[in-house]
Structure formats: structure tokens, C-alpha cells
Write a structure and sequence with these properties.
This protein has 765 residues and is α+β, with helices and mostly antiparallel strands. It is built from 22 helices and 27 strands. Helix 18 packs parallel to helix 19, helix 19 crosses helix 20 and helix 21 runs antiparallel to helix 22. This is PAS domain S-box-containing protein.
Length: 765
């Protein structure tokens, strides 16, 4: 016994026809095919490919055909037929004969016998003349004695009323249109089933297999009565549903519906009946004993000769097996698609998490990955204490942006069930599922009306609390929720997916935390290596250092200002190749070496030569660029003499008091460490150049992080720096100078470190 719980969700309904005639054709033909699929019943005669089924409605009192579908009218050939038409006249128009081609005499025609109230349970006849239905190859099928232009059809018919029955709720008693009607169905037969001559004894076998009147479920309703009640059902309907005629006559057929019948499908049927058009739907119906079955219902309107609606004819077919197979197929496809979607989500999460820049970024990325792909709402909280007593909300995400403001505070999600599971998740490190959350916010927050209102506005349905695990420790909690009307109740399968995602997020958060600790240590190291700018009488100094995006808050760029005992001042800017702790350490060593040599009073060229020798001899760094300039003692007018040497570094820029800009590129030499034994074997050494600097002059040093940008011209970047300096006021303070240069010339993406140093010579007091 099959009940609803074994059938699955409702199946989609079939499309209605575009016209009454086409709908009747489709209703009967579809019902024949569905009937033939039932394993417990014999198969119907094969309907020739492409052929339609002819349907006739006969008025028994007048023996006239009051309704014929399009196929039935076409069988009349080239003779015009106007309804209503007598059965004899229609038979003559269609040239109906027996299989030997002999016309029927008297009441011998199957149609004539049906018109007199007799049941014809399948009988072959021949139709002759133009307009006949071709077989699948387009060639008419002849029988023995028939002409080459004949077609064989299988005639089945039965009366829809018993005029002599009393008190049985028959169609004859309830119909307002006459004493009764009969239904005739003509099925085209294939050549193999028609038989010839001696094979005509096979007709008995076919007749036993294809008793359409007794094996196909038919109903007739009376739309002229209130609520369109059933007026007649055939015995097949009684066997299909378990309801006898005396229980259903006078009742609307909605008694077959039950608690799980698709209301939208019922509404479509109701609308079609109201609009008097044909429709086919698949409904979950219930038999008299309460068992459920999938019922394909085809309903067609029947009109009289004047076009007035007189009845609805319904054909029912049990398609439970077909629907269940289709549901299983769809479920398998849905499972496969869900698995593919999960793999895509996991791959996307892995990609996003591995590129997170810090803890907050990792939390935000996770929340945006799971919403809306997995959840409707997501909160990410990190633990401030190991026991989870206090948490910091790091990220929120919601399908509806308006809900994110509600998620920013913990109150609305503070359902008792969620909080209990959250505490357990922190303690055990296991995920937990809350399949059903309360609808009433007062149940969640009985003492806080505002929080209760916010809870109800979130429309929570189901929740998961998943710990963020990083190297065996619970770092935080992820709370995922579904909402009405989008979401569904979650299952253990969803919990496994959420745990996998949270595991990747936890590892990313833990790595980000370690990275932040390392960055903090590196930043401390960097600041300890860079000097504090000294206060020099008659001179104002400003500097900036920016680390590249691919570095670790440390790098090889440096600047230095060194007042000398004789009143001169040394200034240096350099760049060690690399953007890591090794480069920073090499930079610190090189800066110390340069300071020590400069302190001895040597000229800039020899100072750089000795640095080069030390770099190569002690393997301090692979290579480095540097420029060292020495301001001589201040003169009576406040000016100083500037001597400089350059080892592969961008040329410093000097702006004189008149606003003219000079590029100090008179002397260049190789980078430090670039030429082995430079200055020894070849006898070469770095020279220097000297320029006067009047009071009010501005000297600017910078590293190639401002000019060497991927995809941009270095010379154009240098010219941009120069234009920026030229446009500044002549008395611009060095702090204003470095801020303006960075504001205008800083690249969109900082791939390399930047060191910037500005020195202005003041006028004497």
C-alpha cells in the first residue's frame, strides 16, 4: 500500500492545450499512453506514430453527434460536416465499412450500436477516402478487402447514462440536457495489429487487451449545476479511487484532494474550468482508503451544436510509478549539483582565505563567502579570553543589507538555544546545529522588548554554531542562520560543510594573527634601525619611510642625517636590495658603516668606496644603492658648500632660492657590491661633485620606490616629482614638502619601499 510519505514532493503539472479540440485529443491520447504504462493491465493497441485520437459525443435520444474533435471532423474527408450531425450521415461522410470493404447495413455499424446505448468494447472498422490519417511513413494502411486509400481504426464506445436507472445519481437523472449521451473513441491501428484475412481472429485477442470503456477512468461533470458536481463515473474510476458511483454522484471531485495536494495545481484547474478551457495537471490525490497516488487529470469542455457548454469530461490515469521515478531522478541530479556547488564553495573559500591580509580581513572574507551561498546571515566573533566569556564581533554579513545593522550587536541573535550551543562549542570545539528556532521574539528576550523586536525582524529559522579552530585552539565562533522566506531547515550535511569552511577560516585567522605578531616585531625592528632626525642649527629636516605591500613592514631603504664635529652635516639615503628582515638587517649594518666612515671626515666618494669594499668583503648585502652628501660648515650668508657622490641611486634634487630646480647627476658610479673588487684591481674610485647651496635652498633625496613602477615610465615619474617640487612655495617647510610629494607621487599600489628626505637651509637670524 503506497501512502503519501512514500511519494515525495509534488510533481510539476503538464501544460494545458491551446484549444478545446486539441485538449480533448491530448487528454484521451495521453490517458491511453499512461494507461498502457501500468504493469497490472494489458497494453492498448498501438496508436500509429503521429496519429491523433478521434472523439465523438453522441446524443442518445436523437442519435446525433453533438461534439466531434478536430480529428473526428477530418475523418469525414472532403465532405463538409456541420454539427450536430446524425450518426448515419457521419458514417457515410467518413465512408465507414467493415474490414472487407462492405458498407454496414441497418444497425450493424459499431457507431450505430453505440448510438442505441450498446457498449462496444473494441471493434475494427475501415475508413475510406481523402482526409484519412496516414501512418508514421505517410502511407495509408489498408486491410483485406479495403482500398489503397483506407485506414483501419479501433472503435470503442459506451453510454454515459442509464435512462432506466432510478435513484442511482446517474447522469441521465442529473443532466438538464437530455436523457443521456454516449462517448465514442476511434484509435488508428498499426498494420501489425490490424490483421488480414485469417489473422482476423486476432481481433478477439486485441479486444481483450484494449477494452477502453472498462479500463480507462472517465468522469462527467455538470457545470450547469452549482459547484460543477460529478454526474457519472465509469467502473474504472471506481477501481482507481475506491469510490462507487452512488457516493460521488452530485459531489465535486475535490473529495479526492488531501492535505498534501498541491494548492497551486488545484488553483490552475479551477481557473481553467472557470474559463471553460481544457487543462492537464498531475495531482496528488487520495483513494477512499486514504492511500495516496499521483493522478494525471485531463479535463476538456464539451459543447453542444449551438456552442453552449454542457459538460466537462475528465480522464484520470494513475502515474505514481512515473512520478516517483522522475522524483528519484531529480533528487539524484540535485544531490550531484549540490556536491558540485559544495566543491566550488570550498575552492573559493580556500582561494579567498589564503590571500587575507590580516585577522579582520580574514573574518570579513569568510562572512562574504558563506552569504548567500550557504547561509542568509553570518556573524564571526573572536574570543577575547580563552573561556569565551567575552567576544569581539569581527564581521557580519546578511542577504538583506538592512539586517547587517541588527547583527552588529549580539542581542538579536542571543537566542537561548544559540547561546547554550555557543558555550558548548567553545568548551568542546565541536559544531552544533539548531534546526528550528522560535518565531516569537518575546520567547527569546522576555525582558527586552527592543531585542525581541529586532529578533523577529531577522526572521530566523535555523542556525549553526561552528567554532573557529586554529592549531588545536578555539579562536572564535561562527554563527550561521537561515531566514524566512529564503532559507530552509539545515541538516547534518550542512553542518559538515560549515565545519569544513570554518576550519579553513580558522587556519587563515591563526596565520593572520601570527603574521600580525611578526609584522609588529618587524615594525619595531625597522623603527629601531631608522634614526631619529637630529636638530641642526640653521637647517630644517623632514623624512618619511613607507614599506612596500609585498614586504613585512621592513625593508632595505634608509635615510640618515649626521652632524659632524667641525660643523659640517652629512646626509645619506640608500636602498638595499630586498624587502624582508635580511634586507633590514643589511640596511642597519650598512648605515652604521657609512656613519662611521663619514664621521672620520672623508669626502663622499671615498666613504662610498670603503662601504663597497666592506659590503663585498664581509658579505653584508648582495647589492645596494646609496647617495651621500656632505654640507660644509655654514658661511656668513647662511649658505653651505655641498659635495656629493652617488652609487647607482636616483639623483637628488636641489631647488635654489630663486625656485630653479637642479638635478644633481654630475657624477654616477656603480651600485655597492655590483662590481667585484671595485677600486682595487682596476684602480678606480668614486669621485664626487660640489655645488654651492645658498640660504633658502631645498635639497630632496628619494628612493626608487617613487619612480620604478611596473607598467609606468620611470623618467615620467621623475619629471612628476620635479614638477611637484617646482610648484611648491619657495619657503615651504620640509614637512610640507614630503607630504606634498607623497600626496601627488605615491603610486596606486606600493610594491616597493620608499624613503624620502627633505633638507632646507635657513637664512641667518
Amino acid at each position: 500500500m503506497t501512502r503519501y510519505s512514500d511519494l515525495g514532493p509534488d510533481a510539476p503539472a503538464g501544460p494545458p492545450g491551446d484549444a478545446v479540440e486539441r485538449a480533448v485529443d491530448q487528454a484521451v491520447a495521453t490517458s491511453v499512453e499512461s494507461f498502457g504504462e501500468q504493469p497490472s493491465t494489458p497494453a492498448m493497441p498501438h496508436v500509429r506514430g503521429g496519429a491523433q485520437v478521434a472523439v465523438l459525443m453522441i446524443d442518445l435520444s436523437e442519435r446525433r453527434i453533438v461534439y466531434a474533435n478536430t480529428t473526428a471532423l477530418e475523418l469525414a474527408g472532403d465532405r463538409p460536416v456541420r454539427l450536430p450531425i446524425g450518426v448515419r450521415e457521419w458514417s457515410e461522410a467518413a465512408r465507414l465499412t467493415d474490414l472487407d470493404g462492405r458498407p454496414y447495413t441497418g444497425e450493424g455499424s459499431p457507431l450505430a450500436r453505440i448510438a442505441s446505448g450498446e457498449t462496444v468494447s473494441g471493434e475494427p472498422v475501415a475508413l475510406h477516402g481523402p482526409g484519412l490519417m496516414p501512418d508514421r511513413d505517410g502511407v495509408p494502411v489498408p486491410g483485406e478487402g479495403a482500398t489503397a486509400s483506407s485506414t483501419l481504426v479501433w472503435v470503442t464506445g459506451f453510454a454515459l447514462a442509464d435512462p432506466g436507472a432510478q435513484g442511482q445519481g446517474t447522469y441521465a437523472q442529473s443532466s438538464a440536457t437530455g436523457p443521456g449521451r454516449a462517448l465514442a473513441v476511434l484509435l488508428p491501428l498499426s498494420d501489425s495489429e490490424a490483421g488480414h484475412g485469417e489473422d482476423r481472429d486476432r481481433m478477439g485477442f486485441l479486444r481483450d487487451r484494449a477494452v477502453l470503456a472498462t479500463e480507462m477512468s472517465f468522469t462527467i461533470s455538470d457545470p450547469q449545476r452549482e459547484d460543477d458536481p460529478l454526474a457519472w463515473v465509469n467502473p474504472s474510476f471506481e477501481r482507481l479511487t475506491g469510490y462507487p458511483l452512488d457516493e460521488v454522484a452530485g459531489r465535486n471531485c475535490r473529495f479526492l484532494q488531501g492535505p498534501n495536494t498541491d494548492r497551486s495545481a488545484v488553483r490552475r484547474v479551477r481557473e481553467a474550468l472557470r474559463e471553460r478551457r481544457a487543462i492537464t495537471e498531475v495531482l496528488l490525490n487520495y483513494r477512499r482508503d486514504g492511500t495516496a497516488f499521483w493522478n494525471q487529470v485531463s479535463i476538456s469542455p464539451v459543447h453542444d451544436g449551438d456552442g453552449e457548454l454542457v459538460n466537462f469530461v475528465g480522464v484520470q490515469s494513475d502515474v505514481t510509478e512515473r512520478v516517483v521515478v522522475e522524483q528519484e531522478r531529480r533528487a539524484a541530479l540535485a544531490d550531484a549539483e549540490a556536491a558540485r556547488a559544495q566543491l566550488r564553495l570550498l575552492a573559493e573559500a580556500t582561494t579567498q582565505m589564503t590571500t587575507a591580509l590580516d585577522v579582520a580581513d580574514a573574518c570579513r572574507r569568510f562572512s562574504r563567502i558563506v552569504v548567500p551561498e550557504l547561509a542568509d546571515l553570518c556573524t564571526v566573533d573572536l574570543l577575547d579570553t580563552p573561556d569565551g566569556a567575552t567576544r569581539e564581533r569581527m564581521a557580519v554579513a546578511a542577504r538583506d543589507a538592512d539586517d547587517e545593522a541588527l547583527l552588529s550587536r549580539s542581542g538579536p541573535l542571543g537566542a537561548v538555544r544559540i547561546e547554550q550551543q555557543a558555550e558548548t562549542a567553545v568548551r568542546t570545539g565541536k559544531p552544533y546545529l539548531v534546526q528550528e528556532l522560535p518565531d516569537d521574539g518575546r520567547e527569546v528576550h522576555p525582558d527586552d522588548p527592543e531585542a525581541a523586536d529586532a529578533y523577529e525582524r531577522l526572521r530566523l529559522r535555523s542556525a549553526m554554531v561552528v567554532p573557529l579552530l586554529g592549531r588545536g585552539r578555539v579562536l572564535g565562533l561562527v554563527t550561521l542562520s537561515t531566514q524566512f522566506p529564503y532559507g530552509r531547515r539545515w541538516t547534518q550535511r550542512d553542518l559538515h560543510l560549515a565545519s569544513d569552511l570554518a576550519g579553513r577560516a580558522g587556519l587563515a585567522v591563526d596565520n593572520a594573527r601570527l603574521y600580525e605578531v611578526e609584522r609588529a616585531a618587524a615594525a619595531t625592528l625597522q623603527h629601531s634601525l631608522l634614526p631619529a632626525l637630529p636638530q641642526v642649527p640653521g637647517m630644517r629636516v623632514a623624512a618619511r619611510y613607507l614599506v612596500g605591500a609585498d614586504g613585512n613592514q621592513v625593508g632595505g631603504d634608509w635615510y640618515d642625517v649626521l652632524p659632524m664635529p667641525d660643523g659640517s652635516v652629512g646626509a645619506a639615503v640608500g636602498d638595499v636590495v630586498g624587502h624582508d628582515l635580511s634586507a633590514a638587517a643589511a640596511m642597519g649594518q650598512l648605515r652604521g658603516v657609512l656613519r662611521s666612515y663619514a664621521w672620520g671626515g672623508d669626502a663622499p666618494g671615498p666613504v662610498l668606496d670603503r662601504c663597497d669594499q666592506l659590503v663585498q668583503g664581509l658579505d653584508i648585502a648582495a647589492m645596494a644603492t646609496a647617495v651621500y652628501a656632505r654640507f660644509g660648515p655654514v658661511g656668513p650668508d647662511g649658505g653651505r658648500e655641498l659635495t656629493y657622490a652617488n652609487a647607482g641611486h636616483p639623483a637628488p634634487l636641489l631647488r635654489d632660492p630663486q625656485g630653479r630646480l637642479h638635478r644633481l647627476d654630475a657624477h654616477h658610479s656603480p651600485m655597492l657590491g655590483a662590481v667585484p673588487e671595485f677600486g682595487r684591481a682596476a684602480g678606480a674610485h668614486r669621485g664626487g661633485a660640489t655645488v654651492p647651496c645658498a640660504a633658502g635652498s631645498l635639497l630632496v633625496f628619494y628612493t626608487d620606490g617613487l619612480t620604478d613602477i611596473i607598467g609606468e615610465d620611470a623618467d615620467a615619474r621623475t619629471e612628476l616629482i620635479e614638477r611637484t617640487l617646482e610648484e611648491l612655495p619657495s619657503d615651504a617647510d620640509p614637512e610640507r614638502v614630503v607630504e606634498r610629494v607623497l600626496e601627488v607621487c605615491l603610486p596606486d599600489r606600493l610594491d616597493d619601499d620608499i624613503a624620502l628626505l627633505a633638507i632646507r637651509l635657513d637664512h641667518p637670524a
